[in-house]
Amino acid sequence: MDSALFLDALANLFTVEVLLAITAGVVGGIVIGALPGLSGTMGIALLVPITFGMDPVAGISMLAAIYTSATYGGSISAILINTPGTPAGAATALDGYQLTRQGKGAKALAVSAIASMIGGVVSAFALLLLAPPLAQVSLAFSAPEYFLLAVFGLLIIGSLSAGSLLKGFAAGVLGLLLATVGIDILTGYPRFTFGTTALQSGIELVPALIGLFSLSQVLILAEGRDGATEAMTSGLRGRAMPTLAELKRILGTIVRSSGIGVFVGILPGAGGDIGSWVGYNEAKRFSKGPEKEEFGRGSLKGVAAAESANNAVTGGAMIPLLTLGIPGSSATAVILGGLLIHGMQPGGALFTEQADTTYAIMLGFLLANILMGIIAVAGARYLVIATKVPVRVLVPIIVALCVVGTYAVNNSVADVWVMLVAGLVGYLMRKVGVPPAPIVLGLILGAIAEKGVRQSLVMAQGDVLGYYLSRPLSLVLLGLILMSLLAPVLAKRMRRAVPQKAEVET
Questions:
Q1: Contact, 419 vs 209, CB < 8 A?
Q2: Which intervals hold domain DUF112 (predicted)?
Q3: Contact 26/375 with Cβ under 8 angstroms?
Q4: What is d(CA 199, CA 193) in angstroms, rounded to the nearest whole number?
Q5: What is the dihedral of CA 122, 128, 133, 138, to 10 degrees?
Q6: Closest CA to 234 of 378, 85, 92, 384
Q7: Does position 269 have pLDDT exceeding 60, yes or no?
Q8: Could you report the per-residue pLDDT of 392-409, keeping only the tens digit for each?
Q9: Do 322 and 135 touch, CB atoms closer than 8 A?
Q10: What is the pTM of this model?
Q11: CA distance 317 to 335
């Protein structure tokens, strides 16, 4: 990034609208993450319509701020009430809640905030350094590569399937089918519109996102027990900030776990929960003596490792999102929808034709992590209030926001109906254990895959296999696809071989 581009990006970033949007995203994300039962994905989906009338830098920066702040916010309820607000906060609860029971809840919250900020900042720098070179490669992509890239992206459905590969692929296929609704891109004929004018432009992405992630989640929330969740405020007494000696002791763990988180985030489908567990496990493995015995019983290192890793995942996940258009998690899938709504197609064009906007967004992500750390350290005691909001208050507010936000995008009642149907479908899917994320992935990548394969068929002039095999980038992507398909099979065989080898040796 040259100096002129850097200055343009800073000029786009440091405007009143963008700074207010990032601040609102940080505060809103922390609150959403702290509320058990809600998630950053739901918050992002709910606020996508609000960004529609905003400047792209302000809108996408706010969504990214919610993403990283909600990841931290999940640690608040994990530490205070042993109930992670987000899946990424589960590892934090192991030691965080024990510290609260020991009267060190305030210190645990401060360590969580510091570790989250450092992890997020490290991942933001990784985004700034690694995204541009990878985007240069994507400039050489044509129709065949976009088709193969979409196929590769669809293969991560298994990792978004919450333990059921079959259910995940079924949801993904449903998303692919929904992507075919509307006017055919080559022939101009309507498909599966059933004579409805509103469906000729296809299934609108924003109503589908809000329904599948926000409305369905709030319906699940409404089923739960009514009333507020009581936080252990007694654990907030005593010294809030860790001592200098404690900070020195956990600094190495934070840096190492941040690197792990960035790497895990780049892997499609891994997510913050995996990153936090890997970071936590490595921190425990590197510890020795009495320090190792503290893990699970109230270790500041355990809290720092889990939080720095899961927040570092966020920046790592943004790298394949911005450069290749591959969302590695449900949250980044929703952010991808936000990018598309603002006319920003991930890939090389983002870093050439829209470079000043793209770099401003990445710098905004860096600023959001710094601001999150400041707000979290200064206001952790007051953010406890978020864990006490009654469900009966939350549900009607969120439902109203779902309806108003959906209607506001196109001023269309049809969009509201799409959102309601998507919400009902998402609710039923959650009840039977089918994750909604693969549907969104299929809906977004389905159109890219169809366009790529149909254009490449025309370009191949009858020799499809030869055409694909003659393109170096296509061969690389084919290799990645084969590796993704074979990796689970090989891993399963290796797991079977290890016990057999052990039996022979005994």
A1: no
A2: 19-441
A3: yes
A4: 5
A5: 110
A6: 384
A7: no
A8: 777 888 888 888 878 876
A9: yes
A10: 0.74
A11: 11
**180 burial type by CB count under 10 A (0-12 exposed, 13-18 middle, 19+ buried):** middle
User: Which residues, at least 6 apart from 364, have a Cβ–Cβ distance to it below 8 Å?
Assistant: 13, 18, 22, 57, 60, 61, 64, 65
User: Which CA distances in Å does 434 have to 96, 125, 150, 171, 212?
Assistant: 31, 35, 22, 7, 12
How many Å apart are CA 262 and CA 274, to the nearest integer? 12
Q: Report which residue type is found at 317.
A: A
Please check whether residue 170 is in contact with residue 386, taking contact to mean a CB–CB distance below 8 angstroms: no
Tell me, what amino acid is at 58? A
Residue 421 is predicted with a pLDDT of 92
Tell me the sheet residues that pair with 190: 183
Structure tokens at 46: 């709910």
Q: What phi and psi values does residue 182 have, to the nearest 5 degrees?
A: 120, -165
Residue with tokens 């010294």: 239
Report whether pLDDT(437) > 60.
yes
Cα three-residue angle 91-93-99, rounded to 5 degrees: 130
* C-alpha dihedral (191, 194, 197, 201), degrees to nearest 10: -30
H or E segment and range at residue 182: strand 182-183
Q: Report the amino acid identity of residue 388.
A: K
- Residues 97-114 have pLDDT tens digits of 888 888 788 888 889 999
Farthest-apart Cα atoms in the chain, separation = 74
Placement of tokens 């985030």 in the chain: 265
Cα 274 versus chain centre, distance: 12
pLDDT at position 37, please? Answer: 64
Structure confidence at residue 42 as a pLDDT band (50, 70, 90): confident
Return the residue matching tokens 């977004």. Answer: 444
User: Which residues, including other chains, have CB under 8 Å from residue 100's CB and lie 6 or more apart?
Assistant: 79, 80, 108, 232, 235
In the predicted model, is pLDDT for residue 238 greater than 90? no
3-class secondary structure, 144: helix
Cβ burial, residue 488 (10 Å; 0-12/13-18/19+): exposed
- Provide long-range contacts, Cβ within 8 A and 24+ apart, for 141-145: 141/347, 141/348, 141/473, 142/456, 142/459, 142/471, 143/451, 143/452, 143/453, 143/455, 143/456, 143/459, 144/452, 144/456, 144/459, 144/467, 144/468, 144/471, 144/474, 145/452, 145/471, 145/473, 145/474, 145/477
CB 271 within 8 A of CB 320: no
Is the pLDDT assigned to residue 320 strictly greater than 70?
Answer: yes
Q: Is 86 helix (H, G, I), strand (E, B) or coil?
A: coil
Report residue 78 as tokens: 């994990």
Tokens, residue 226: 């009514």
